[in-house]
């Protein structure tokens, strides 16, 4: 039997991708990871016994800062004839594509920001049309594009951020059993998450600062609890009339950028992160001053739509 491993992100989209890979590929090991831990897991795959022959990666974008480790892995994959499938919907740095030239014989990758990673995986594996797959795809799309049409999306998002890796792996097992709303998740949400989570959002907004540059308004949320999703902070802020061109959410170990006016993925990539045009992140302890300087540099180069007087508080 061919030894296969999957490595995916831990949010709804990443878990859906992992479940779909399980349905069709049956990997011997499934790893949930972040973009910063991905290189270490790839190198760990090379040390496994029996040797891994196929690796599936989904919902994780390669970081420029980790390119050396990625190339080391791909060179070894080439020697050992390990096949790598990589499906992602984040914006990749152009430099990454240049480094991947020459690995076509071992690496197949699909990058399309118009879809979720789970959608790309389901299509690649021929799973579209399956009732459970389609229902889970709705949640992954609802979460990643922050549409929030379904209450179940919000519950899963909060539970996955609130608890650690044990709960995330438990969620994956539920999805693999085709259980979209397991009783244990609903109980956790109702017992511990719902009330406290709302309070943390309010606390984050209360500490918000405003920075302006030539009419470009930035709202900065410092020292935010990492269990709170940045999109929910922005959503509540806007519903309360707090509107900006750019929102910066500062966590203990990273920064989230969200904007409908400028491409935040380019800002994040320049600082060692990545993501989407409207929502991106920078891992690690990057300084707020460095982020603001990069933002100022970008807005000086870009055209943006000014906020109307009715939008400005």
Characterize this entry briefly.
This protein is of the alpha/beta class. It has helices spanning 12-25, 38-45, 67-80, 94-99, 117-124, 131-144, 151-162, 165-176, 183-206, 230-239, 264-270, 288-301; strands spanning 4-8, 29-32, 54-58, 83-88, 107-111, 209-213, 216-221, 246-251, 254-259, 274-275, 279-283. It is 46% helix and 18% strand.
Write the topology of this structure.
Layout lengths: L3 E5 L3 H14 L3 E4 L5 H8 L8 E5 L8 H14 L2 E6 L5 H6 L7 E5 L5 H8 L6 H14 L6 H12 L2 H12 L6 H24 L2 E5 L2 E6 L8 H10 L6 E6 L2 E6 L4 H7 L3 E2 L3 E5 L4 H14 L12
Parallel strand pairs: 1-2, 1-3, 3-4, 4-5, 7-8
Antiparallel strand pairs: 6-7, 8-9, 9-11, 10-11
Helix pairs in contact: 1-5, 1-6, 1-8, 2-3, 6-7, 7-9, 9-10
GO molecular function: hydrolase activity
Keywords: Hydrolase
InterPro entries: DHH_sf, Nucleotide_metab_enz
Largest sheet: 6 strands, mixed
Distance between the termini: 62 Å
**Overall morphology:** globular
CATH architecture of the largest domain: 3-Layer(aba) Sandwich
The name of the CATH topology of the largest domain is: Rossmann fold
H and E string: EHEHEHEHEHHHHHEEHEEHEEH
CATH class descriptor name of the largest domain = Alpha Beta
- The helix tally amounts to 12
Provide the domain count: 2
In total, the number of strands is: 11
Question: Average pLDDT, to the nearest integer?
Answer: 93
Name the helicity range: 40-55%
Strand content: 15-25%
Protein name: Putative phosphohydrolase, DHH superfamily
GO molecular function, one term: hydrolase activity
Keywords: Hydrolase
